[in-house]
Write a structure and sequence with these properties.
- The complex is a heterodimer of chains A (401) and B (346).
- Helix content of chain A is 44%, strand content 14%.
- With 401 residues, chain A is α/β, with parallel strands linked by helices.
- Chain A has two domains: 197 residues, Rossmann fold, CATH 3.40.50.2300; 152 residues, Response regulator (Rossmann fold, 3-Layer(aba) Sandwich), CATH 3.40.50.
- In chain A, strands 6, 7, 8, 9, 10, 11, 12 and 13 form an eight-stranded mixed sheet that branches.
- In chain A, helix 4 runs parallel beside helix 5 and helix 13 crosses helix 14.
- Chain A is globular, with a radius of gyration of 23 Å.
- Chain B is mainly alpha-helical.
- Chain B has one domain: ABC transporter involved in vitamin B12 uptake, BtuC.
- Chain B has a two-stranded antiparallel sheet with strand order 1-4. Chain B has a two-stranded antiparallel ribbon with strand order 2-3.
- In chain B, helix 3 packs across helix 9 and helix 3 packs across helix 12.
- Chain B is globular.
- Classes of the chains: A alpha/beta (401), B mainly alpha (346).
- Chains A and B meet through helix 3, strand 2, helix 4, helix 5 and helix 7 of A and helix 3, helix 13 and helix 14 of B.
Chain lengths: 401, 346
């Protein structure tokens, strides 16, 4: 017993001395051993549960697959998560608990509220890089929120992509007009000021701006306003599904030819399918390729293979693709940090994140991506035909900024 | 075994804690509370701070609803008023020890206005009036952008004392817990005064109270102002704790949370407010800890069991209401009585 302990001490000392001799600080040598923990507080229950369960499945499947591939830089990954219920105080509690018990270098939260609530603490800790499902423009600010990144464009960026699509689609001298319809929530209002500024820059008139209650379904008065304004496109933001189908139905009944447009959380196939025939012709911005895209790419084929092996339908959703991509970015950032023989701490992980340039995501994005203000300003416009169950690309991949 | 409650002087009669055993427990509690953040990790300290804020707010609602009989469904909005007032003051450079009472006073002022309908309507009708206040104030939080920051909310600077920033859960704990203790002692004493007893008289039978010479106008509004003051201070502490004030934080759901807390804990009991807030804060955490404990052995447990957690939590609340309508405070009293009379049968 004593011998084996002594032997271990001698071996440890020799390893440390060897590491020092090679120019590696001892702490780096220590940082490069043991498993890597990924912490998360996905919203498995609550109003965002439809996405949270898919996030959870994706992280579990991705972790299992990545470990089967040897982990990150030879180190196994352990995924530790608890349900946030989409409540900020609970998500913050989970963050603190997992940070205290597991000290993960990366953490996935559940909302804009969570990211804002922990921003000061994360900056103070300087030990963890965070991400989440929020694409709030407020969070794409490396000065104020240095350790948060989003796996896609900001909501403002998404609307910019839609407006760029509108500009490209314009025929003749007259620019088509748009209307902005958004919910009276932080999520809904987030990109509106930037959207109006971008529209002005592109010379696209904003014919009308409509604010609705978050859960409102009676949209008759708003549709009358739209009918008077006669926009060519209506951009809906701040909703998942309702009241978009009601708007589309009443607009169609009013004989309007206006095209409905949506942003990421309205663009999952299950959501689009619920629109029914009134959703035919609905277009929207998606940062990622759909898993059923006719163009086969390595990453999407991998998601299909891993997901279908597990069963269920979660892998077919954009939420699954989103979480898979976040896992891949975590792995890339950790791998770059360890590859540079650096400690897994906030500043090093942030530097590794910011070094991502023209990165090939294996086809999740259709083009190599670079980070801009800790967001990925790339997306593509898709056109849905729910009556036939199809969502087809309506544009090429658009990079903004 | 205690054989009686013997008080030989007015000082003893006025004391909150009469027996040496009670005073020893109180001392142990104070020492325990003071040492807690050093013994517990950051997670438990965070939960303790959150619990402290919930206790203050639940006590405020208990003063209004439990003691005076004025059902309020707008308590979260009063917290919001306090939070935004503190945020505004803090960003204007007002120190936290002035900003916090200011937040409470701002909330009390709004509470006075909202309490006015209580003179003409009561019971569920009054509850609907306070519900309207919840929505009106929620609208103000979202729309009064120069003050509240609109839907994006507003950030607060860290509180500071003598130039030292009070940052981190442990430091905030030493603001929240003393504030909670002071406000609990104040509430306990309130119901030993004419004002507090007037509240109880109004709750039990307002017409009889008026016949006895209690001014309903004065005391109902006072109850509302005091309860709102508690909510405002809790809201201000919430703001300093999360360093942000957003409209979504002060939703109707939070008002219902506090109402559930005082009903589960025990209406008209200071201890009930504490136990109710603890129940509503700790039980979801405990249930989540059980799911997290199972997850390493069975990874899909998080997805499969998380929705069950909500059902179990709801069932526990219903169970307590069915089997102990007087709340957790009454259960606690029974447990104490058992030990007071032990080894004899209670």
């Amino acid at each position: 017993m004593v011998d084996s302990t002594r032997r271990r001490i001698v071996q440890g000392s020799l390893a440390a001395a060897g590491a020092s001799a090679l120019g590696l600080p001892l702490r780096t040598a220590l940082a490069q051993s043991g498993e890597i923990v990924i912490g998360a507080a996905p919203p498995i229950t609550g109003v965002f549960a439809f996405a949270g369960a898919a996030f959870q499945s994706a992280f579990l499947d991705w972790t299992e697959w990545k470990n089967a591939q040897g982990g990150i830089a030879g180190r196994k990954i352990r995924y530790v998560a608890e349900d946030s219920g989409y409540k900020t105080d609970q998500a913050v509690a989970i963050f603190k608990k997992i940070m205290a018990n597991e000290k993960p270098p990366v953490f996935y939260g559940d909302s804009t509220g969570w990211a804002k609530a922990i921003a000061a603490e994360v900056t103070q800790l300087g030990s963890v890089l965070t991400s989440g499902p929020s694409f709030s423009s407020d969070l794409a600010d490396p000065q104020k929120v240095p350790y948060y990144f989003m796996a896609g464009p900001t909501y403002s960026g998404m609307i910019e992509i839609l407006l760029e699509y509108v500009r490209r689609e314009a025929k003749g001298a007259a620019k088509p007009s748009v209307a902005l319809v958004y919910s009276d929530t932080e999520f809904g209002r987030d990109p509106i000021a930037a959207a109006k500024s971008t529209a002005a820059k592109l010379g696209i008139p904003v014919a009308l701006e409509v604010v609705t209650k978050p859960g409102g379904v009676d949209v008759s008065a708003e549709v009358i306003k739209l009918r008077r304004a006669k926009p060519d496109y209506v951009i809906f933001h701040g909703y998942v599904l309702a009241p978009i189908p009601e708007f589309l139905k009443q607009m169609r009944e009013a004989g309007m030819k206006t095209v409905g447009m949506g942003t990421i959380w309205s663009m999952d196939k299950s959501t689009i399918d619920k629109m029914g025939a009134v959703g035919d012709g609905f277009v929207g911005v998606m940062p990622y390729r759909y898993v059923f895209d006719s163009q086969k790419t390595p990453a999407m084929e991998l998601i299909r293979e891993v997901g279908s092996k597990k069963g269920g339908t979660a892998w077919q959703t954009l939420f699954y693709t989103h979480a898979w991509l976040v896992g891949s970015i975590f792995a890339e950032v950790i791998s770059r940090t360890l590859g540079g023989y650096k400690e897994l701490n906030g500043p090093n992980l942030k530097a590794a994140l910011e070094s991502i340039d023209k990165w090939d995501t294996g086809g999740i994005f259709g083009v190599p991506v670079s980070l801009k203000s800790h967001s990925i300003p790339v997306g593509r416009v898709y056109r849905a035909t729910p009556s036939k169950g199809t969502i087809e690309p309506a544009s090429d991949w658009i990079t903004i900024g | 075994m205690r054989t009686g409650d013997y008080r030989a002087s007015y000082a003893q009669d006025e004391a909150l804690f009469v027996t040496p055993v009670q005073r020893a427990w109180l001392l142990a509690l104070i020492v325990g509370l003071a040492a807690f953040p050093w013994a517990a990790g950051s997670y438990l300290t965070y939960i303790a701070v959150l619990l402290g804020i919930h206790v203050i707010s639940a006590t405020g609602l208990n003063i209004m609803t439990g003691y005076t009989g004025l059902i309020s469904l707008g308590h979260a909005a009063f917290m919001g008023v306090g939070c935004y007032a503190v945020a505004y003051a803090a960003n204007a450079g007002v120190p936290f020890w002035i900003a916090l009472p200011l937040g409470g006073l701002a909330s009390a002022a709004i509470g006075l206005v909202v309490g006015i309908p209580s003179l003409r309507i009561k019971g569920l009708y009054f509850a609907i009036a306070t519900l309207a206040a919840q929505f009106v104030l929620g609208f103000v939080f979202r729309e009064w952008e120069p003050v509240t920051g609109g839907v994006r909310g507003v950030n607060l600077p860290a509180p500071s004392l003598f130039g030292l920033a009070i940052e981190g859960d442990r430091a905030v704990y030493y603001i929240v817990v003393p504030a909670a203790v002071a406000m609990l002692v104040a509430a306990r004493n309130l119901f030993r005064t004419r004002v507090g007893r007037a509240f109880i008289a109004i709750r039990d039978r307002d017409i009889s109270a008026e016949v006895l010479g209690i001014s309903l106008l004065r005391y109902k509004l006072t109850a509302f102002a005091i309860g709102s003051f508690y909510a405002g201070v809790a809201g201000g502490l919430w703001g300093y704790f999360f360093r942000a004030a957003t409209p979504e934080a002060f939703s109707l759901g939070l008002s219902v949370f506090y109402l559930a807390a005082i009903i589960v804990g025990g209406l008209g009991s200071i201890l009930g407010g504490i136990l109710g807030a603890a129940f509503m804060t700790m039980v979801p955490e405990a249930l989540r800890a059980i799911v997290a404990w199972i997850a390493p052995w069975y990874p899909p447990a998080t997805v499969l069991l998380s929705p069950m957690r909500e059902i179990v939590f709801g069932a526990l609340i219903v169970g307590f209401l069915v089997f102990e309508p007087h709340g957790l405070a009454e259960m606690w009293r029974r447990v104490r009585r058992f030990f007071h009379l032990w080894p004899f049968k209670t």
